[in-house]
Amino acid sequence: MNDTMSDETTIYDRRLLFYLDILGWSERLASGGPRVLLDVIKRVHQDTEVHNEQFRQELVRRAGERIELKPGKFGTRGSPNPIFLGVQCGAFSDHFALSMPWDFGGRILTAGLKLIVDLLHLGFLTRGAIVVGELYHRDNVILGPALLEAHKIESKEAFYPRIIVSQEVLVELGELDEDREPDGLVINDGCGRYVLNPFYFGISVQDPAQEQALVASFESLNSHLTGVKNIVDTNIRDLEAAGRFAQAEKWHYMRRFIEGPVLNADPRFRPYWK
Asked: Options 3.40.50, 3.30.1370, 1.10.12, 3.30.70; which CATH number does 2-156 get?
């Protein structure tokens, strides 16, 4: 029996997992909005296609020796870039999962930022968790204790549209100790939890004029916060007019989150919250 258990547990790797739930999916489907949902699914797959195993195998077939990896730490086939090789993504209905080997560290925190903001521009809030633990993940086939933990945090602890970063992840990344709290990319949302800041932009320069131009260029290319306030306010107004106050509160949280912790962490983006 012990041998059987040992064989079963060898399928797992220690991985970092970014788990995301797209909120309002069932309501939008019930109200007859399948075309919008299809656009969302396409956006998710476009953002993650490069990490799809079938996509990679096709790339190997086309590129041949140029992207094959010699035997070593990261395996025997794939891209010379170990990040490309080690990351796995899966999307199923209104759920999204991205994982990578645990020693890729803080890369897990930035991996899903663009997707969260893209979905917000499409009118969808997201909720989820970032954890570390034992996991098997190949495209849409995913199982293991890490997935159970992420789902528990997302469904039982997150409540609001936020991505909770587990204490274990923060400790392993060196972001949480007795002397300081996380800042910037991971922030305290004011409700007692450390959460991912999807609007994080960690580049700065000494010259104020150059920095202003850098921020403006990033905002222009990514529609970072531009127009988000209108999306948030419109959803609050429409949901409250329809008497759906519980759903409206999720958008109220997003407004409080941006106007408080997000813009306090990086006030350079205040001019674009309009």
From this structure: 3.30.70
